[in-house]
Each structure stands twice: as structure tokens, then as C-alpha cells.
Design a protein that fits this description.
Blueprint (H helix, E strand, L loop, with lengths): L14 H5 L5 H7 L4 H13 E4 L6 H14 L1 H4 L4 E4 L8 H17 L5 E4 L7 H8 L6 E5 L19 E5 L3 H5 L1 H7 L6 E5 L8 H7 L8 E5 L6 H10 L6 E5 L7 H11 L7 E6 L5 H11 L7 E6 L10 H11 L5 E5 L5 H10 L5 E5 L8 H6 L6 E5 L11 H13 L6 E4 L2 E11 L5 E9 L15
Parallel strand pairs: 1-2, 2-3, 3-4, 4-5, 5-6, 6-7, 7-8, 8-9, 9-10, 10-11, 11-12, 12-13, 13-14
Antiparallel strand pairs: 14-15, 15-16
Helix pairs in contact: 2-3, 4-6, 6-7, 10-11, 11-12, 12-13, 14-15
Length: about 475
């Protein structure tokens, strides 16, 4: 009987392929210590993307350590391609503030290969930091907090040119006012625009109409919490994108948004002929039956692959109709890889139909009552390519905690899913689905399914504000 090869027998050329599946920075750091071969392959992966999230333990002190490293070791900083800063020390004494500012500036200047930057902590982004980031010549993706207040000068922003992706969170009036000039500066390259306003009235139809002529290359547009945006402003932008958009998010727009007129205009002009992903919200004042019919018309000619729908805010009275789900699946089921429903109840019949007829479905996010949990396993088992599933209870149900009883139910559901499922979630918790092959004394082989903590440092897709 031939002996199985040991790990050390594998060709060294396979090591980079193995290391690409390691997601935790702490694990990559440990791999750097194995030997020189591991070190040479693991170090670039360790520094390729560096990030600080608000929920990280001692996140603010890690900011200091991160920029100290980038400032002191330029050869390491040159490996950084993506910098994500979502937490930052605030309320500092003058001496400490000057020290951290200087570290940040020095560290950023050393990141000569920086391709993408996210800096969203309110009050932490300053004019000197923006100037330093603007000197990173390879920077093509920028996500920042748009509330400039007295922290930075919005007039610096148009210095960022050749941007492919731009995301603004809670932009202030002066930042919104500079958008026409800024988008003009990036008219040849800008493909992705996201404006997250959280019910601010600053982004309006007029603003969208002003920037539309500069968005000819736009492929992804996401508007969240823009109550002064109607179908007219949206049509202006979509009409200017000469290739047509691939991803579209329209969440929390004006309550008077005319879906019928929007659908008619898009179909008449063929604006969504490339659309692969859409995110929609519906408010409590909308006639759901009519709205759903207009949505079906809107998407009739789109090569849709990802469908996201939810209600605005915490409203939970709307129920996604079985007829609507059936129509979406009939029209797009052979392409849909993600079906995502948030804050809207749906029936087991609809879920079963989605799992049975969406033959390439990989991600499913749903809202069901607690009493229906036991019936979900057989539903999910019908989706043979399903990789990630998340189950939410209605927001009016009560506590978001996962009790022991709920945990056992989720484990039972995971054990009934197909072998492709790697992630399962319930309310605010996300678990990895691990499978171990066990050989009994009599030689019988069985697979044991267990739930383990979520390891990936990335935010799970179902919790993102903008789902792309």
C-alpha cells in the first residue's frame, strides 16, 4: 500500500496556493516563523491588507502600533495595498496627538504601492492625512467619512484623481457641493460611486443631475439614506452611464419614488441590460402588491445574479409574497447566486422554491419565524451549491441573543445542508461549518459537522451597509 505524502513532501511552488486560504493575520504571522520559505511567501500576504475595526480589542492602541511599523519599516509599508482604518484614538492630549499624526503621515508616505484606502472614523481624517494619501500615486479606491466639520478642508478632495471607486459616508454640505468638480476630475476612470447619507437631505436630484455628465464610465451606483433622491435623479445618472450599470443599490430614497415611472424609463432606454446585482428597500407607506409588479417589470430584461430586498429601518409588517418570489426565480433562477431578504418575512414555500430552482445559488439570507426553523434543513438541502446561509428572526420578535436551544437548531440545520455549506448565521451570530471525517473501529467512515467561530476578519456580507 502506497504511503500518503506528508506536507513537507509537497513542491514549494504549491505553498503560495495553500497560504492564500489562510485568512487570519495572526495565523499568517505564525506562518512567517516556520522557515525562510514560509516567511518569503507569508509576509506579502500579511501586509497586503492591513485593517483596524472598531470592535477590535485595543483597536486604538493598534492604530499606533500599525503606523509605527509602517513608519519604521518602509520595506514592509511598500507591501501594503489596502489600508482600512475604522477606529482611531480621539480626545488626545496635544503631545499625543502630534505624535500619532506624525506617525500616520510618515507611515502613509511609505505606502508607495497603496491601491485602496478606507478611513471612516469621524473626526480622525485631517487635511494633512488627506494630502499624504493624495500623494500615493497608485491609489484608485477611496472610502472616507464625509463629515468634514473642522477636521479637513473639502477643497483637498479633487486632488484625488484617477479614482476607480469612491465611497462617501455622511457627506457634509461642502463635501456634497464639491462632488461635481471632483467627479469631473475622475470622469475617465470612475466606475463605482457610493453615497451613504443616513437620511440626510444633502444629496438631491439636482446633485445627481449635476454629476451625471461625469459618470459616463459608471458601473456601480449605491445610494443609501438619501430621502431627497427620486427616480428622476437616478434616471439621470443611469442614462449617462454609456455601458450600463452592473450593480445598483437604491435604499431609503424618497417615499414618493415612482417605481412605475422608473421601470418604464429604464426599460424604454435599455438602462439595465447589464445589471447583475440590485438592492431595493420598501417603506411602510408603499403599496407592496403594485410595487412588486413594477420591480418585476424593472428587472425583466436584466441578467440578474444577486437580488437584495429589505424594508426601511425597523419596519417589519411587510411580507414578501410567494408570487413575487416565484416570479423572480422563474425569470432569473438559472443565474441567481445570492438571494437576500432582510426585515421582511417570507414563507417556507418561497424558501423551498428558491432553493430548488436557483440551481447556482451560493448565498441565501432570509427572515423566518422561530416556529419554522425545524423545517429549514430540508429546504436548504435542495440547494446543492449553497455555501453561506443566514437566518434572521423578525426584528419585533425580541432578543438577538443565540440561546442554547437556538444554537442546537442551527447545528441541526447545518447537518442537513449540502456539503458545500461553509458558513451559517443566526441573527447577529455567524459560524463556520466544519466537517471532520471519522473512521470507526469497524472501518465505517462518517462525517461529523460542527460549528466553530467565524474566522474571516472581513465583515460578513449580510452585515454590510452596502451589499455588492
Amino acid at each position: 500500500m502506497a504511503q500518503l505524502a506528508a506536507f513537507e513532501d509537497l513542491p514549494i511552488e504549491l505553498l503560495p496556493l495553500v497560504l492564500q486560504h489562510v485568512v487570519r493575520p495572526s495565523h499568517l504571522a505564525s506562518l512567517c516563523l516556520v522557515n525562510t520559505s514560509f516567511f518569503s511567501f507569508a509576509v506579502p500576504l500579511l501586509y497586503e491588507r492591513v485593517f483596524i475595526y472598531a470592535w477590535h480589542k485595543e483597536g486604538k492602541s493598534k492604530v499606533v502600533k500599525l503606523f509605527q511599523t509602517l513608519a519604521d519599516y518602509p520595506h514592509r509599508a511598500q507591501l501594503v495595498q489596502q489600508l482600512v482604518i475604522r477606529d482611531f484614538p480621539k480626545a488626545l492630549q496635544s503631545k499625543d496627538y502630534d505624535m500619532i499624526r506624525d506617525l500616520c503621515l510618515s507611515g502613509i508616505r511609505n505606502c508607495t504601492n497603496l491601491r485602496a484606502c478606507t478611513w471612516t472614523r469621524h473626526g480622525s481624517l485631517t487635511s494633512p492625512i488627506l494630502v499624504a494619501l493624495g500623494d500615493c500615486l497608485r491609489l484608485s479606491e477611496l472610502e472616507i467619512n464625509g463629515q468634514h466639520d473642522d477636521f479637513y478642508d473639502p477643497r483637498i478632495l479633487p486632488r484625488f484623481v484617477h479614482l476607480r471607486k469612491l465611497s462617501l459616508i455622511m457627506p457634509s454640505g461642502p463635501v456634497v457641493d464639491i462632488l461635481p468638480r471632483w467627479t469631473h476630475q475622475n470622469r475617465e476612470t470612475l466606475q463605482y460611486l457610493s453615497l451613504i447619507c443616513k437620511s440626510s437631505p444633502r444629496v438631491t436630484d439636482r446633485i445627481l443631475q449635476d454629476i451625471a455628465p461625469h459618470l459616463t464610465n459608471l458601473e456601480y451606483l449605491y445610494l443609501v439614506g438619501c430621502p431627497k433622491v427620486s427616480h428622476e435623479g437616478l434616471c439621470a445618472v443611469l442614462s449617462a452611464a454609456y455601458k450600463g450599470v452592473i450593480g445598483l443599490g437604491m435604499e431609503g430614497l424618497t417615499s414618493s419614488f415612482d417605481m412605475a415611472a422608473f421601470s418604464e424609463h429604464c426599460n424604454r432606454a435599455g438602462l439595465l441590460s447589464r445589471l447583475r446585482s440590485i438592492t431595493l428597500t420598501v417603506d411602510e407607506h408603499t403599496s407592496l402588491a403594485q410595487w412588486q409588479q413594477h420591480v418585476l417589470s424593472l428587472l425583466a430584461n436584466a441578467p440578474l445574479q444577486q437580488f437584495h430586498i429589505s424594508t426601511v429601518g425597523g419596519h417589519v409588517n411587510h411580507r414578501l409574497s410567494d408570487d413575487f418570489c416565484e416570479a423572480i426565480v422563474t425569470a432569473h433562477g438559472d443565474r441567481l447566486t445570492r438571494f437576500s431578504v432582510h426585515r421582511m418575512r417570507m414563507s417556507l414555500g418561497a424558501i423551498t422554491d428558491i432553493c430548488a430552482r436557483c440551481v447556482v445559488l451560493q448565498q441565501l439570507f432570509i427572515v423566518v419565524e422561530n416556529k419554522d426553523l425545524d423545517a429549514l434543513g430540508p429546504c436548504f438541502a435542495r440547494a446543492r451549491n449553497l455555501r453561506a446561509v443566514h437566518v434572521n428572526r423578525p426584528l419585533d420578535f425580541g432578543s438577538e441573543d443565540v440561546s442554547k436551544r437556538s444554537y442546537d437548531k442551527i447545528l441541526s440545520i447545518a447537518r442537513q445542508c449540502g456539503p458545500a455549506v461553509k458558513q451559517i448565521g443566526f441573527n447577529t451570530r455567524v459560524f463556520q461549518v466544519d466537517r471532520a471525517v471519522l473512521v470507526a473501529e469497524d472501518g465505517l467512515v462518517r462525517t461529523e459537522v460542527k460549528l466553530s467561530p467565524y474566522e474571516n476578519p472581513e465583515i460578513p456580507e449580510q452585515f454590510l451597509v452596502v451589499r455588492t
